[in-house]
Design brief:
Blueprint lengths: L4 H25 L6 H27 L1 H24 L6 H33 L1
Helix pairs in contact: 1-2, 1-3, 1-4, 2-3, 3-4
Amino acid sequence: METRPYFLFGDLLATGLAGAVCGLAGAAVVVPGWNMFLAMIPAMVVGMAVSLPISIGFGALFGAMEIMVPTMFGGMMAGMWVGMAEAMGRVETVGEALGQGALVGWACWAITWVLNGIIQARGAQHG
């Protein structure tokens, strides 16, 4: 992944936005009282569908693969996370759904960043 500040800013902006919007979308499709594990499925699908146009838009500016992987992963996870929280009745406001989604998106960006570093280090050892 790119380490220059412009690209880091773009990565964080894209994953935070995708996470926030997908978290809100996940909360919108789930009704409190649903089984939390069953609520994951529509929330995940909505998260993937909503994060795709975001990743394509930001990918043109910051690199397709560098944006698409963490953004799609973050969108899917944010939709699932907030959708399950909504099923348990724990999402009180729109701001809470947006905030939780953004945090999940940034966590997925961090996971992707660490795993990419591990893969690159292994490749350097063997190449």
